[in-house]
């Protein structure tokens, strides 16, 4: 490894170590003004203030001690409010302190109470963590320009990082822990949000939330690893353009534009995020926000609906899944850049494919039923749909699919199951587009079986778990609903056997002719359903 790469790795690891230490470097001091500002329900405020009285004005040097006392106070407050509401002769009813609301209160009270060196020297710590980490990553990546482009036989399966080794498992564990904290325990990472306050205030005018911090890291990961992707595949114009595309759409549409909209007092909106991937698009609070924001909000609502019923089938007919999954989608963008080193870990077995089909289409059905229930409640006021509580239905979907699957498993399992775990097994939009691609699309990957030498590069590096070699050996067009058209299989083929095409529908399920020693046999489509 060249000295510049070693230096880059050292800087990157130092930045990660500092970033990991930051949540333990703060102090916490709660004031009555903070409590009144966060707990806006006057009935709940009376109980919460009473339980927090001993914490007010006290300085905590331990985050765990502070949050423990906060947990006890809110737990006691919730119990007392519930007991009060059960009294028959009570004067008024106080809104119960539900677990979700209590979690929000604890997060914001921790966010406001955070003090210490991070707040006093935010710019310095920002440079020492995110800035230094970005610099280190580029120093490690840029020397790869001296190597030949493309994928090489470099013992990737024997690497401790990319071949199910201890480094890969460690990275996966850290990613899983990060997402657990982000989704369910954001009060433990408030210093990270303070760290990015200067950037957030400059873009949106607001303090950074956990989602701004996450969006910033997410975007930087795609940009930095996108440079790596371009260097690696610089011999392919297709890969350069599609990598630049996901870098642009993530930076502009997913990160910058929504934050700028907030600054302009408009709804937060990602114009490229499509239902059912954007599963909360039809939630009541979203619809009310759109309809109450004038012409801009109405345009957002109509835009989102048109994407679902017009853009998806139209673009998928002409270009298959690749127009979105490999060129636009933020999930796909992270998978294609940050997740590229792990693409060869995708399971190619027939069993995995069967599980994939059941899981991804089940999630799509779940998303459709959940959304139908949400809309039913919105228009009728009834909280029950098909004998199911619609709030419970959407909360369950948000927890299981929106958080646990898409985040914790979807990214945390990169070093364990490959970079497209979410796209293969869980993304409902991928399932929707895949159905169109499979049955009504011009896209396919054509093969020239006579040139195939069965090297297996195509199957090895297929991130979607498709046994591409099986098709190539038989000269069979690849028409699979799971294929995202990334084109890596064609790039790694030494004989040019594979080609991505958007031809006429006729002949898309072409019948291969296999020439044996003594016969010529034409096979039907059913012989090769895999």
Automatic annotation (TrEMBL):
Residue span(s) of domain 4Fe-4S ferredoxin-type: 443-471, 474-503
UniProt keyword Plastid present: no
GO CC field: plasma membrane
Record GO terms (molecular function): 4 iron, 4 sulfur cluster binding; metal ion binding
SUPFAM superfamilies: 4Fe-4S ferredoxins
The keyword Iron-sulfur is annotated on this UniProt entry: yes
Membrane-spanning segments: 123-142, 163-185, 211-231, 243-262, 298-319, 358-379, 391-414
Pfam family, one: Fer4_5
Coiled coil segments of this chain: none
Swiss-Prot/TrEMBL keywords: 4Fe-4S, Electron transport, Iron, Iron-sulfur, Membrane, Metal-binding, Transmembrane, Transmembrane helix, Transport
Protein name: 4Fe-4S binding protein
